[in-house]
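Troubleshooting: if your tokenizer reports a length mismatch, compare your output against this known-good record of 347 residues.
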Amino acid sequence: MKNEAQADGLLYAFETLRKMLVLVVKSLYNYRVLNPVQESFADALFIMSLTPHSRDKTTRIHDVTDFNLSHTLESAQSFRWNACDSWYYGVVEGCLLKIRQDGQMLMLASSVEGDPECLSTYLRHYLDLDRDLPAILQAVDIDACIHEAIENFWGMRLLNQELWECLASYIISQNNNVPRIKGIIQRLSARFGEKISLDNYIDYSFPSPQALAEAGVKALLECGTGYRAPYLWEVSTEIVAGTINLENLSRMSYPLAKQELMQLKGIGEKVADCICLFSLGHLEALPVDVWMKRIIEHVYFGRKASIREIREFGEGYFGENIGYAQQYLFHYARTFGLKRMIQNPHL
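Known-good structure output:
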């Protein structure tokens, strides 16, 4: 009896300490006045404060065919994924996820405890696993150039990203490179998002429209957004005010959704097409960035061309799955260089 009482006392003391640590961490991060040493200490407390029930449990998705995780997550569609110790860690809709592929099996875990079946269902949607990828790639595999891209990156799928983060991310992406885009998004998330942890990995949720609206343009500029800061702030403000209804946007056809997006300050045709393709699931969208313009001009036209010419050619040549075709061409050129694509002896 005495030993049991002592054990109960220790458990009570541990639980009390754990609750105190949670309060300390919350206090530190609410005020965000941390030097590097305090930051490391707070991180340790944050992880210690997790109860065993809130730690991750690995879920497995079996029989995943025609899918390559690394090609998909490293093809510059989303800017939140990082490779770490044979896993990919990324923040999706406020959850920190980790994913690894082993043949036709995906192993995954979430910072949020929940039904493994729900997590599996969500990931299948996010990774576009239920789409008939072989049929799509067969339809667009119509020349030597895209054939080589498909052979090199077979299994790359288009992500179905959350609309708000995708919209904001592609406003930030304008005239920017991938490492810098990732850096800006990380700084915004660390400053205005919520801290989340999985294993010993710590990240931050993407800020809500309200958080960015309340932050103001000056604070957004401090995160390195540059001339995009007013655009990002204005869109956030309009969403909070109800002027922009994201739910309605998600139900629109491709032409209507694109038109609606282009009404927003800071969103041109390319950014609107990125949002339509990488969030709204419109595979007929064709984002024409610098890479795609060069590919079409050098490989297919052999001359300079207007955006309109490129768009008309792409839609007519590749058809309704142009979105998938452009992603394979884009990722190939970005990985191996445009020169290799131009010098393809079979063209």
